[in-house]
Amino acid sequence: MSHFKYFKKKLFIENTSVLNIAKKIKTPFYLYSGKQIEKNYINFAKIFKHVNPLICFAAKANTNLTIMRMLGKLGSGADVVSGGELLKALKAGIKPSKIVFSGVGKTEDELKLAIKNEILLINVESESEAILINKIGKKINKIISIGFRINPNVDAKTHKKISTGKAENKFGISITNFSSFYKSIEQYKYLKINAVSVHIGSQILSDTPYKKTLDVLSKVINDLNIKLKYVDLGGGFGIKYNKKDKLANLNNYAKLVSDFKKKLNCDIIFEPGRSLVGDTGILVSKIQYIKKGLRKNFIIIDAGMNDFMRTALYDVSHDIVPVIKTDKKSQNSVEFVGPICETTCKFVQYKKYQKIKEGDFVAITNAGAYGSSLSSNYNTKPLIAEVLTSKNNLKIIRKKQDLLKLINS
What we know:
29% of the residues lie in helices and 25% in strands. By secondary structure, the protein is of the alpha/beta class.
């Protein structure tokens, strides 16, 4: 979060005071740095410049149209997992030739939408899905370009709720089943396998699982003697949520991928999401109440799990920082919690925290990925605003949802 810094004890985003923004826009709201988004994309592309991959932003990380449009202008494609995300990517100006469609349960309507728009790849995740696509192709007399998502049975050593590459996970097709299907591909005249795809999980902090995956893919492709246009290596690259996190060495991985590409003579696709937008956003919130408990004080903020689900869903914590720093440390243990009527509507606990009071503003850090995209109307709460700062300009890129329209819809 290099574009979020303190200046004279006040939190700034780029060159703008977060306090000044919070005085103008009703909390809670998401606040993103346009410079950080641009920096992250350029850095990722630079690391893999010798690979020259097609970078397809994982739209599920953040589906805000303005952010998707920004990434598209930088050269990004999109990895989508629903018909809605596909339509959003197209609306954001991303070319169909840069869109890949993943997901285990694509409906027939979603598949037809992808085929109609002639996207680059449909990453098939089961034999049944491939058979359905073949039927659609037959009806319209069209050969359809697909990839097959393989489950490499590689443990990414990440949280169990975001692990996708092990045999016990629902994603992809086993190597055995893929091999069997590929050997009978001639009977499916309306399918063209142009790619194989993998995605082993999210928030991966080591390059070791990636290396193992490359080894598995090399063996499968060589054993079956498949000639491919693309290998889609997915994403899952982690970010630093706290000081203890150590990131994967992507420079080492880039060398491995470059060698892999040369041996197979194919193009590479990546699907980064969190690594492009995770550290670009904060969730600005106001302290509603401070309630004294027997063992700790509850800091009740106006943002809830409906606004930011990650902590409740994944059992993780995000640092919460004051918008204005002081040197006064509170001696009591404090826990930041939200207003939603659920025990899991809580964020993080500190043994010591600076002295704060009701009405002060705080910011949940590293909230740019899986924040707004996971938000909901639970407890009949409106979706909150999203704000972008870029080149010293402030822009509301999603207005706060109108409560009356919500209750009347």
